[in-house]
Structure formats: structure tokens, C-alpha cells
Amino acid sequence: MWNWTRSNRPEESECSECYDVYCFDQTTFSHLQNIPVSGPGEALRVNILKIEPSSRYPSWRADWISLGLSATKILEMIALWKAQAHVIWWVSGIPWLYFFISAGLLHQQRLSRGCVNDLKHNSVDVIAGQLPVPLRAGGERKVLLGVPQDFRRSSLWKAVWACGSIVCTASLVTIYVSLATSESTAMYIWLGFQLCWLVLRSVYFHFSQESKKGSFPVLIEEHLHSMNFTARKRLLNLWIALSRYQVHNHPRSFSSYEDELSAQGSVEAMSTWIHDYLSPHLDIEVLENENQKLEEVDFVSVIGDAYLSSAAWLHGSKLTGMDLYDSCIVVVAYDGRTFAVPAARVYGAISRNKIDVEEGRLPLHPPKGSYNWSPDQDQWIYWIPCSSSRWLEVRTQNMKVIGKRKFELVTDSDITKRLNNGTISVSHSDVAQIREVVKFSNLAYEILLDFFTTVPRNK
After folding, report:
1. pTM of the shown model
2. Where are the domains of the chain?
């Protein structure tokens, strides 16, 4: 079972023993068939399509000259005008004029050829494989960068031929009706020119070598550490697309991650957070400083479980979405400084009525990935490690994460108590499990660091 996603449109499609999304895209399908898979736990191998330096591209100047030669159609229109066949003159000339202008526009936009000489601006990047979802580990994967796009799939090309089909149909019907009522001289002139154009087109396409030449990209395999800046950034855009795909398939629902997704910055911004702002914990002395009286911190961004599990699968780690279900990296700012801290968070089912647990209506510790059991309120609850074995606990409102948030400093025993007193219904039962989540967050951070190592950063 193979699925796919790409950097500008994450989707899912399934088909037994095939890449079904490419059944009607033979170009992409043929390239995917020629690259080996990376199995679960294997290091990432990235395949890049590049144009050979020695490739000879068709002459765009020759194409313009060929298009100009089609202006000999004017001879037919002059002959019909002199024969007083004015209706046939119009009906015969309008389709040619429409396609002449359209061909010039397609030439100008470089959409008249199947071969390309700039894969950066006329290609897509693809992940194909058994894509991971939060409740199911991913399998084999293929990463292919720079897949040339069929020029016939462009919106302009489709619009030209959609309108052209209408023009040709109307012209064909009108011209046969007109020929039936016109003089025989006009009919013979029109018929003679049609035979002439047929012969000339056949001769042109037989002898035109330029129309038979093309350039084809070659496949180059690279590993993560050998990739240049441009290729690595394209890979990271695929990672973001895969993360969004996972969010759309998340049991917590898309709305739970909407604020988080909207706050993600560019690849360069995330690189800065990962490289420059890492801190294993927050400084408790600053948070408890009586002179400053800090009561809130500013959440700049959150790199949640969908991002972390997508990076782990791409990288070749054995960490799954369930392992990283409650893991995250929070980017917070206070006291004029910014910190990126591996942390834990739960999608809290908050009950104001403890009797719910006793009566069996609200499970005390529902398993990961289960339905949100909350009868009263949905919240993200963050536990960010601090020095001196303390934790910064932050609870969001209305699932909004980004912005200034009030916090509370808690101890290990406080967390364990809250996990077992019936007010928070999550899978964890003590602080040791929360520390295990933070451990997974740190492992995921190391994976992200490997992805972002050579990406250029804004200083």
C-alpha cells in the first residue's frame, strides 16, 4: 500500500500494489519506479533529478520562426475574400487567429515544450511510500526532488484548449453550412487550401529535427549530509507538507493544531530556533525572581508531535507517532531571551466535576489516540522542564497556543497528583511518564538538528 505527498499539496491516495496517484502521470510514475526504497529504520536517501550539462535544448528561436510561417494562412483568407466568400473568410480565419495568438502566448510562457531547462521553477518534490499517521507507523519511503511537470497540465494550457474546442466546433459546423450555400468556386478554393495545409504540415513535422529533440533529467542519489542548501530546503518543505498531512489525519482533529500551524515560520526561522535557542530547561531563578514578578511567558512557536514524527520517519528513526504523541519543542520568550525547550504536552480532558470518574463516565487514563472524553473543556496542557526539578505548567484557552500565557511552577509530586485526582483525563499517571515524553522530545530534537544543520539561517 503506497501513499504520497508533495510540498505544495499534501494528500493521500491508496491502491493495492501500485502508486495509484500516478496512474495518469506516467512521467512521475516512471521516475519513481527507477529509485530504490528506504526501508523503516534505514538512513534517508534523497533522489534528485537534474538536467545534464551537455543536454541540447530545442531552439526557442526556431519555434518562433515556425510559428511565423503559419501566417501563410493569410493567403487563403485573401483568396476567399476575392471570391466574395465573406462568411467562409471569417469562419476559416477566426480559428487560425485564435490559435496563432494562443501559441504565441504559450511560447512566451515556455509551455509549448515537454522538455525543460529549469527544474527549480517547473517541478515538484514528492514523498512516496507508506506514509505515517499518528496511530500507525510509516513503512518504506522514497523521496524524489525535481520531478518535471507535464506542461499540458498547466492552467493556461487547459484554458487554451478548452476555449479552442469551442471555437473549432462552432467553426466546423458553420463552415459546412456555409459551403452548402456558397458558390462552387469558393468551395474549391477552400478545399484546395485545406489539402495544401495538410501536405505542408506533414512535410514540416517529417523534416523538422528540432521537434524530435528533447532533454531528459538524470537521477542523482544523495544522503542528508551531502545535500546542498537548496535541495535541503526543498526536503524540509516536504517535511512540512507531510506534517500537515498528519494533522489532517489526527484523532485530536485539525482544529487542535490550527493555531500551531499558523504560527510556524519559514524554514530559516525554524532553523534559528533549533540551532541558536536550544535549552534543556528553563532557568528557575529567573522565573522566581521576586524583583521581576514574572507571571506569564510568550509562546513564539510550537513544533508538535506531527512535525516530530514526520521528521523521525523521514530520517529513518524507529520513533513512531505513538512514541512522540505527547512530545513537542516549545519556543518561548521571557526576560528578553528566547528558548527552544523539548517538553511534554497533553490534550487535556478537563473536568470540573470529579464525580465523573467515580461514576465511570470519564475514564481516568484513556489510551493515547482515543476520543477526547472531556465533558467540559478542551485544553492543551504543557509541562516545560525547569532547573531544580521544577516544571512550568501552561494551560491554553480555546486551543490557542501562541501568545502570552500565564504559567504556574509545579513540582514532580504536583504533576503526579493532578494526573490522578480526576481533573485531567490523559493516558499518563505519574511524572515519570512525563519525563519519558520529554526524553522522546529530546531525541526528536536531535533528528531535527540533523535536518537543519546546513540550512542557511538569518542572524
Report:
1. 0.74
2. 1-249, 252-452
